[in-house]
Amino acid sequence: MRHALGSARRAGAALVAALTWAALLAGCSSVGSGGLDLDRILGKPPAPEDAIRITPDDGGRDVRPGTRLRVQVPGGHLEKVRVTRSQDAQDYPVPGRISADGLTWKPDHERLALAARYTVDAVALDSHGRRSARHTTFTTLVPDERFIAYVTPENRSVVGTGMIVSLSFSREIADRAAVERAVHVTARPPVDVRPHWFGASRLDFRPQRYWKPGTEVSVELRLRDVQGAPGVYGLQYKRFGFTVGRSQVSLVDAAKHTMEVRRDGELLATVPVTAGAPKHPTYNGKMVVMDMLEVTRMNSRTVGFGGEYDIPDVPHAMKLTGSGTYLHGNYWAPDAPGRVNVSHGCVGLRDVKGGSSGTPAGWFFDRSLIGDVVEVVNSKDKTVAPDNGLGGWNLNWQEWTAGSAVD
């Protein structure tokens, strides 16, 4: 996982400024504990390392339906909790309530659904008034001898022109040809859409070039009773669709510290950015916005680094890769965008603590869609892998079509 870092807010004293800029070993991540203690440097009381506790654990799989879903804080209070359940590309809100003391959220109905993906977003204030956030996901148990596909994007969504239809299967698929034949992706106006397998449990679809704005895409899963592996059969028979919105493609030049935002081919704006520092450069290549969070927590320990940073309230965070590359607001290194690359692989835009629509980060967030393309050039790193997030646009058409299991 890779994420953007930063240093800290400025203080008047020269010593604090020196400590702050010495900490510019940026990085990104989401959810975790530990990290660079800038509040201690600035003389503020420390925040609890794990301010928001969510069970089941982030990334949990095959969670049993009797498991308790809880969001808790040891002090302060929960400000907002949003939980959704996704099944067959459809999102359903999970109703629940925060306790009178503000320390716990629990659902109205305790039993979890089978064969579903749950997403939890929580924001809390500690006893010193500092905001922190967590974003977690987990999937529940799929009955034995059955498999399902978790689908991207959501049903009835409006997406950017770089959206790739991605199916993540709950079981490894042995008969990939049979499963591939049972999935139908069509477009209006018509365009040739082809599949590509990444390993035994992921199947993606895309056209040769980015979708044209206004295209309506339909996905039909005819998986029920299809044998995906010996004795394991599909569970779904479902149709869903989405619409392609306007075209927005942004070009990040890591050497120039700029991002050109183009809407329908016309230059909308050139925005100053900070990319990965020399020791932790940003991936080159085409990446697609996978998720958008108004605020999230980023922590170095969740991306394989040490305790360099733990930023509880990163604003305007847009996920670009499965490994954790984000494009997000940066309030802790306000002089970096446009001048120097200081992150651990993310792309940072100038922002303020708490986020604001009047900043470059807020402006870009408000004008973006899941499915928009962000391309990075002139970074001293390799091209992002095509299975890292929705990175399939980094394969040419011949390479893409060679990934089909059907002759």
List the helices and strands and how they pair.
Blueprint: H1 14-22, H2 38-41, E1 53-55, E2 60-63, E3 70-72, E4 77-87, E5 90-93, E6 96-98, E7 104-107, E8 117-125, E9 131-140, E10 146-147, E11 149-152, E12 157-159, E13 165-169, H3 176-181, E14 183-188, E15 193-197, E16 202-207, E17 216-222, E18 227-229, E19 232-234, E20 237-244, E21 248-253, E22 258-263, E23 266-274, E24 285-288, E25 291-299, E26 310-319, E27 326-330, E28 347-350, H4 360-366, E29 373-377, H5 397-401
Parallel strand pairs: 2-9, 10-19, 12-20, 21-29, 27-28
Antiparallel strand pairs: 1-3, 3-7, 4-5, 4-8, 6-7, 8-9, 11-13, 13-16, 14-17, 15-16, 17-20, 18-19, 21-22, 22-23, 23-28, 24-29, 25-26, 26-27
Beta-strand residue percentage: 35-45%
* Arithmetic mean pLDDT: 88
Per DSSP, the total helix count is 5
Could you describe the largest sheet, including whether it forms a barrel?
9 strands, mixed
What is the helical fraction, as a range of percent? under 10%
Describe this structure in words.
The protein is mainly beta and 407 residues long. The chain is built from five helices and 29 strands. A hairpin with a 4-residue loop joins strand 15 and strand 16. The longest helix has 9 residues. It starts with 13 loop residues before the first helix and ends in a 6-residue tail after the last helix.
